[in-house]
Design a protein that fits this description.
Layout lengths: L2 E2 L3 E8 L2 E8 L7 H24 L7 E5 L4 E5 L4 E3 H11 L3 H24 L12 E5 L4 E5 L11 H18 L4 H14 L3 H30 L1 E2 L6 E2 L7 H38 L19 H68 L1
Antiparallel strand pairs: 1-2, 2-3, 3-5, 4-5, 6-7, 7-8, 9-10
Amino acid sequence: MAAQGAEAKLYVGDFYGRPCVMKERFVKNYRHPILDRTLTNQRIKSEVRANLRCKISGIQTPTIYMVNFETNSIYMEEIQDAVTVRQHINTVQASEPNPASVCEQLKPLAEMIGQTLAKMHTNNIIHGDLTTSNMLLKGDPKDLSFFLIDFGLSSFEASAEDKGVDIYVLERAFLSSHPNSQDVFDCILSAYASQMKDKNACKEVISKLDEIRLRGRKRTMTRSSLEKETAFPHTGHICQEKPQESHFDATLEKQTAMDKLYRQQQNYSESEHESDASSMGSYSSWGSNQSYGYDNDSNRTLDSNDSTTCDDKDEDDKGHRATQKKKKKMMKKKKKKKKKKKEEEEEEEEEEKKEEKEVVERRRKKEKKEDG
């Protein structure tokens, strides 16, 4: 086994003397077997179709040798002596500390990525998982050949929304895995725009990309604002986000802080309730004539404010019950009307059948008389 992902395993071998990679999809036991079979077959078909369409449109992809639906496996060409785009960019960034020189070295690669994206989108092919790990480079640094792989999430859509989402996925993956590479991604977008033949469609895709970016920014802004400052009204305590931490540590620390604040809030409310109860108990020691809380027999007595609130609640309950009764009456009336309509329709059908029978009998009698 060469590698394993979230959807499949990769095995390296030979296919009649040719270097081959077998991609075998998992059987997902949490799904119904029939549903799992149909979904995996659909995904395999769409993956193979996208691969073939890209090859027809001039994009270099691994050649498909065979598909076996019984074992959920695809046999394809192994691109030997190839490096992922992610590895190539990491090596360039490690060797060159200056971002400007890195951008100059990666400019031809960015143009190749943008041109292949434009070819895909002109043929209405959506990759669905555009990352630098799903792009391969082969050959000399001066004469590189570019390959696209892993069409497992591909689809065939012509809308600008889907194409914008495809580019946005690439942008997020590119900037997260390769920091300080915004200029390189700008080169990708410029090459994409220059390669697209339909300029109006290109403008729509880029405008949709801007909209999708705004959605993502709103989401990140709300998350960051919640993580930076979360205050509680009772305690007044504020949980602040610590910079330069991993995502897992930050979320774990945030969760513990939230739990502590919740406990403090709960303890505060309980202590407040106890203090109120003690104060009410102290009021009862004034005398038996004044009923402000708990009396000597520890029975609850109501003052004038409590009685008014109870009266309001009773009135609300009565109004709610009245509305429920009205709704029930309306439902009963509707049901009766439906029953009457059904009965009338049945009676009309019976009358029509009787009339038809009478007409048929009259015709028969006439025919008998004519024959006699």
